[in-house]
Structure formats: C-alpha cells, structure tokens
TrEMBL record:
UniProt membrane topology term: Multi-pass membrane protein
Pfam (any one): TauE
Name of the molecule in the record: Probable membrane transporter protein
Transmembrane segments: 77-94, 100-119, 131-150, 156-175, 187-210
Location of the protein in the cell: Cell membrane
Family, similarity comment: Belongs to the 4-toluene sulfonate uptake permease (TSUP) (TC 2.A.102) family.
Keywords: Cell membrane, Membrane, Transmembrane, Transmembrane helix, Transport
Species this chain originates from: Luteimonas terricola
PANTHER family named among the record's database cross-references: MEMBRANE TRANSPORTER PROTEIN YFCA-RELATED, TRANSMEMBRANE PROTEIN YFCA
Transmembrane keyword on record: yes
Length: 260
C-alpha cells in the first residue's frame, strides 16, 4: 500500500499521542489501530503494523527498568516464554480469520477495551500477599499473550492488573515486569506477522519514531498529577471517536449486519 505525506503525518501524530498515553496509562493501541484502519489499512495489517511501532517503545521501557534493577528475569523467564508462545498462537489465528469478519469484530473489541480503561480497577502502589502460584502465572500470561497476538490493545493493563491483584506485586514492580512480558508477546506476534507478510514497514517505522517521542513526553507528564487524571478519559474519548469513524464507513460489515 502507498500513502501520501499527509496520511503519514496524521498516522505519525496518532502514534505520538498514543505513545504519550501509553507511557501514562497504557492502551496506545486503542488509538493507533483504528487510526490505521481509518487510513484504509486492512485489519490484520493494521494489527501487524501497530506491533512494529509499539515494539520500539516497549523495548525502550524494558531497558530503562532493567538498568534500574527492577526486573527479576529469573522469576519471570517462564511467564515470558508463555506469553511468547501464546502470542504466536494469537498471531497465527488472526491471519486465519476472514478479513470481512475481522473488520466487523475490531470495533467491538475497541469499544470493549475503551470500557475497560474507563471502568477498570486502578492498581495499588503497595504489594500484598500473592493469591496464586507460578503455574497460574505462566497459564495466565499464555492466555494474555494469545490476546496480544490476536489483537493487542490493553495487554499491558491486563498483565499489570493480574500481577497486582493475583500475584501481590506493587504497582511499580508490576509495571516493570509487565513491560518485560509485553515485550515477549510483542516480539512473538511481530515475528509471526512478518513471516505472514502483514507488516507495512514504512508506515510502522514512521509511527515508531513518533511513538518514541510521545513516550518521552508521557514520561515527563507522568511526574504531574493533572496528566495522570486526564489521561484515561482522553484515551477513551479518542478511541471511541476513531471507532465511530470505522462504523460510519458504508461498507463496514458490522453495520451492514445490524442494518440488514
């Protein structure tokens, strides 16, 4: 696919905003995936290209947390392997789904993820006693990894919520380990989708640069309370606006099904 400078600029802007939001609250894919689809990118290629651009920001975050000694690589090796394996399965599955069906399914998933970010639980700063053991951790990360390979937005939030609520981790530690687990699932999905020829390289790399810049701004804004308070509502509003644009397309299969 070929895109004009104007379209690339708008996608870069979407990636910049998504990178900023992702650094504060996660869920940047709620903006980038519908933005790519609104630009005419088919669903699987949109998911694949989003994986390319998001992998850069996740790698940067893992390196930062690793330098601070906040990631227990030994304890989280097998959960990361599970997330990797699950994500490969999800990335294979999404390529087997009829594109017409997927185009109708994506808006539903986007609305569900927007609702989760608006109404979902907020993690605590303090650690508690773990409710489940290592085997459960591996199993849960496999399941979340599958979701990440199949679709993606909200994966980091799901992982962090599980680590806090079920495995007794504090928010900072959960965030650090979530980035490591999310990197494993991102790389797995990206590699699988590259093999499937689904990645739009130019678009993905342009968006990656913008996403990294947005992540730097988000890290700065995270120091202030105002940014943290506003970010979830902003994420939800932008996601729903972009999703509404998808639904207003005359050939959207979900709308055609409901009307027909």
């Amino acid at each position: 696919m070929e895109f004009g400078i104007e379209v690339l600029a708008l996608l870069a802007l979407a990636a910049f905003v998504a990178g900023t939001i992702d650094a504060l609250a996660g869920g940047g894919g709620l903006i980038t995936i519908p933005a790519l689809m609104a630009a005419g990118v088919p669903p699987v290629q949109a998911i694949a290209t989003n994986k390319l651009q998001s992998s850069f920001g996740t790698t940067s975050a893992v390196l930062a947390f690793a330098r601070q000694g906040r990631i227990d690589f030994r304890r989280f090796l097998w959960p990361a392997v599970a997330a990797f394996a699950g994500s490969v399965g999800g990335a294979v599955a999404v390529q087997l789904v009829d594109p017409f069906v997927l185009a109708g399914l994506v808006p539903v998933l986007l609305v569900a993820m927007a609702a989760y970010f608006l109404l979902g639980p907020k993690a605590s700063e303090a650690g508690t006693r773990a409710r489940l053991g290592q085997a459960a951790l591996v199993t849960i990360m496999f399941a979340i990894g599958f979701y990440d390979g199949f679709f993606g937005p909200g994966t980091g939030s799901f992982m962090a919520t599980a680590l806090v609520a079920l495995f007794g981790m504090g928010l900072v530690s959960a965030t650090a380990h979530t980035k490591f687990l999310n990197l494993a699932s991102n790389v797995a999905a990206l590699a699988t989708l590259i093999v499937g020829g689904q990645v739009l390289w130019l678009v993905g790399l342009v968006m990656a640069v913008a996403s990294i810049a947005g992540g730097q701004l988000g890290a700065h804004l995270a120091l202030g309370r105002a940014g943290a308070r506003l970010i979830r509502p902003l994420l939800v509003v932008m996601s729903l606006v972009l999703t509404a644009k998808l639904l207003l397309e005359p050939d959207n299969p979900l709308v055609a099904f409901v009307v027909g």
